Amino acid sequence: MPIALNSNLTIRAGRPEDDIRCGQIIAAAWMASDVPYRLPHALDMFDDGAPLPTEGRQRLIAEMPNFIAGFTDFNAAQRHVWYLFVEPDLQGNGIGSALLDKAQEIMGGAITLQCLAAARRSLAWYKAHGFQTVGVFDRPLCGRDVGWARLRRT
Questions:
Q1: If 0-12 CB within 10 Å is exposed, 13-18 middle and 19+ buried, where does residue 140 land?
Q2: Distance between CA 119 and CA 75 in Å, rounded?
Q3: Which residue would you say has higher pLDDT here, 133 or 44?
Q4: What pTM did the predictor assign?
Q5: Domain 5-108, classified CATH 3.30.70.20, yes or no
Q6: What are the sequence ranges of the domains in the chain?
Q7: b/e string for 100-133 if b means 16 or more Cβ within 10 A?
Q8: How big, in percent rounded to 5, are the helix, strand and coil portions of the chain?
Q9: How many Å apart are CA 21 and CA 51, to the nearest integer?
Q10: Is the torsion defined by CA of 26, 28, 33, 37 positive or negative?
Q11: pLDDT more than 70, % of the chain
């Protein structure tokens, strides 16, 4: 059942005390995704639940009453989204959309991101949200070259 964004969800700036919860969301979202099974060499990549670094990036938190539901990290100067993760049980409720829209509002103009080519559900989601593939390339992930897609939304 979709949540009522206008009453239950707020988007706010991230704080250092959010890091542990963000690490938990990353681990849960990673394991619930289709990627670890397509890239088994990276299965344990987020097992430690450690937060991602935020150097040079801003973080937005999607918060329901007393509960962090998701987050996005972005670099406003580059107009680039680095990460977007939503608690798996809450996906499909507009949380990721709200985070992405707020990040784009802050950055202004067209934005870019990179997504693992093996993340088929994520790629489909981004395309359904107005992103277009503008390039593909290989880059190492956990010691092996894997395919990535560069996406852009105006």
A1: exposed
A2: 22
A3: 133
A4: 0.85
A5: no
A6: 5-108
A7: bebbbeebeeebbbebbbbbeebbebbeeeebee
A8: 35, 35, 30
A9: 8
A10: positive
A11: 82
